[in-house]
Design goal:
single chain, alpha/beta
Length: about 625
Amino acid sequence: MRDGPGMTGAATFVFDFDSTLVDFETLELLADIALEGSPEAAAVRAKIARLTDRAMTGDLPFGEALSRRLALLPLTRAHIDRLAADAEPRLTASVRRNLAFFREQAGRIIIVSGGFREIIAPVARILGVAPDRIVANDLSYDADGRVSGVAESPLLDPFGKAGALKALHLPGPVVMVGDGWTDAEVKQAGVADRFYAFTEIVRRERVVAAADDEVRSIDELLHLEGLAGRWSYPRSRMRMLLLETIHPAAVERLQAAGYQVETVTGALGEDALIESIKGVHVLGVRSKTQVSARVLDAADKLMAVAAFCIGTNQIDLDAAAERGVAVFNAPYSNTRSVVELAVGLTIALLRDVTDKSAAMHRGEWNKSATGSRELRGKTLGIVGYGAIGSQLSVLAEALGMRVLFYDLTERLALGNARRMPSLDALLAESDVVSLHVDGRRENTALLGAAELSRMKPGALLLNLSRGHVLDIGALAQALGAGRIGGAALDVFPEEPATNADPFDSPLRGLKNVVLTPHIGGSTEEAQEAIAEFAAERLLAYLNRGDTTFCVNLPNVQLAEVNGAHRILHIHRNQPGVLAELNRALAAAGLNILGQHLKTDERTGYVITDVDRDYDPASLAALRSVAGTLRFRTLQ
């Protein structure tokens, strides 16, 4: 590809309209409008789509394709006016993100299209492009307002766009941007110096093959042309890999922001993940995928990992920090769902609901109050009084329970909840014990045979935290001996990687035991909330460098300054890094407009805004600062 105008001078940008500035093909939408309610609508739409595709790939002359498509439609002026009014909301996502570029550079922009001026003009007004910079067809109408044809235009001739643009004698270099073969012909005819195949909406292999480069968004175009983010990496070239069927809300939000998103159903094993993570900039997981040091070693492009759940014990946080990879989670988004399940399971155990239901399914009627108890008046012991444990405390007390809790960290007791001095003290007084601790290694087998023996005879046990915090074998023995009256588990030391894999446990088949497949946070509401929260955290980091809620790097944010160029620097926490960084900035003649540094025991992170663009030599000096783990620029 030849150098962009950032190196050779101001360019004239020529944009196609359909599937480039807007996300639709004009004639296909006109077909939807004109054929509304027609029994032949589907067949006619299919014919128009085929003709459009043939024209866009160069298999059919554009003028012929346009005439044949118009002949299939009973178009009127009202149909045209309706689409013109509806076109503005259909701006391509990256065009809408970059309205400032179009409005500031309107005098260097031409819109060329085989479509119709009446539909293009309203969109051009939004972009700030003057009417005399639109090259398009003009429809003709009969006395009744029916479309009768298209006025004579060079656009209808072979190489129509190229001929029409050549007549304008545009100042060079000329950059053509579009999705179709007639756009590629502009470069082939020598009218454009560069042709970019625009593939945000549709990708045509023949067109891409003829292009100087493929651009998946306007952001990427501006990057390649040196007009924005010249030294930062364009969003549309960043790959995001989301595993374990993460909620579509995250995919939609990340794609809307201009990123490439790939999704995989189910977890990946370590070897498969090592193979898949090459070239990936952002990884999204839930609780099953293990992001080990080996995986991180293979991650040649990785910038961030998002855990679309509460826990992060499936990720080697230290190894990620050592490589400058930020890790985010969603610590609060599914708390209500987990709490509601805990309350429901407690009631189910107190009333022996699951065993009674199973008996009914076998055709057995066993109406009896024996062993069934009310929730009210019972003592609930909560182990771990964080976001979930404290919310459970409030709901349980509202239902009439007496609440005790134990936590290693000093926590504010809510309502009438009482902090217990030790785990043993809590176990001895509780009718129901519910575990809500994190997944740190120190919590492995937090409740084993010794602890279970200290629980009240007949007490109930719930674990909705992490599978390894409870000794399953010891629990099975305590249940079998009648020491524990019932249990409900939503998490297990070993869990199937996918829904197709088998599950086994020594707890299967035991009386008054409820087993659920790690669904504590698996409600539609929680998964959508997690998706939205984690996606926003990722975007805040990628777009602004904001590490708020990051679990393995210092939490840093810096208010944005208009016109500033942002530099992000993650480094080992060692003396002199900031001083050396600032000396390099001064040597490059860059004035600091804002700066924020934070460190933890191993890592430092600083965001710096400077007053002007930087050059490659400046960036090389900044990257070479001693202790640098990760260096990135934004704009």
